[in-house]
Amino acid sequence: MKLEKTRFGTLEFPDDQLIEFPQGIIGFPNAKRFVILEHGEKTPLRWIQACEVPELALIIIDPLPLVPDYPVERILAETEDLGLQKEEDVAVVAVVTVPPQPRTPTVNLLAPLAMGVTSRRGKQVVLHDSPFHTRHPLVFGDPTGETPPAQGQPADALAPECQRTQPK
Amino acid sequence: MLTLTRREGESIMIGDTIRVTVKSVRGRQTRLMISAPIGIPIYREEVYRAIEEENRAAAASRTLMPAQLGRVVVSLGSDESAGDAAGPAGERFPTGHTASRGGGSRKEGEP
Which of B50, B63, B88 is facing A104, going by the closest CB pair? Predict the structure, then answer.
């Protein structure tokens, strides 16, 4: 798959890295296939790039280091239609918004993306009637600070440049 | 557009697979029960709109080429400052030092 005119320029990656979102994501119904972009650094942030909409790329983050009790099981229940059943088989990420300054970056914990690592299918799940909303503020700190960096993001297993094998 | 009148307990069908039932009407509130195939997402409209808006805002995120994401640690700020407020106490996103790395300005002109 070769994508031109993305915000990263031209991207090329093997087709087996694609993740299909049969329902698209809200607001971008035409974006059905995505690829996760890894940047190889120890950062908790990644991109998810849409194939059909080259200008669409979202910053994503593993929500669990931010919210240890994030309702992953409930998210899994919402992905039943995709056949994503086992927790270890599903990567859950939240979408980050970086607005123009001085507004603060936020993370959307109301509507995370859930993706099957082996099925390579995903959807945007909505946590109805939860304490979460679309704009939880994010604090970006120095890597030498006391806040530990996110570890072991399950999304690693989906990243094109990441050869890590997924533990069963 | 179609407008229908229904009583409590009555339903409408949308196509062959979606049924909307009026469970109860109490004052200004109506409880609806929606039965639809799994895979048909159902949202309160304001929730749908909020997510739509946020996805679009996220897609318009400024700066941040992959390299610019760099080595950062991220934590959740206090909830009170969510939205368009000036931001939580503590450090802001350090775009100041990443902006100088260049290359990410392609998206700076908003569509």
Answer: B88
Question: Is B109 a member of any domain?
Answer: no
| Domain carrying residue B60 | 40-70
- Which helix (H) or strand (E) covers residue B60, if one does? none
Is residue B85 a part of any domain in this protein? no
Select the residue from A101, A124, A144 to test the B interface by mutation, using most B Cβ atoms within 10 A: A101
Asked if residue B26 belongs to a domain, the reply is: yes
For the ranges A33-47, A123-137, B39-53, the lowest mean pLDDT is seen at A33-47
Number of domains making up chain B = 2
The C-alpha of B98 sits at a distance from chain A's nearest C-alpha, in angstroms, of 12
Residues B30 and B51 in one domain: no
Nearest CA in chain B to A27: B52
Residue A11: pLDDT over 80: yes
CA pair distance B96, B77, nearest whole angstrom: 19
CA separation (Å) from B74 to A57, A118, A144, B26, B61?
20, 28, 12, 45, 16
Task: Say whether B73 and A148 touch across the interface (CB within 8 A).
Answer: yes
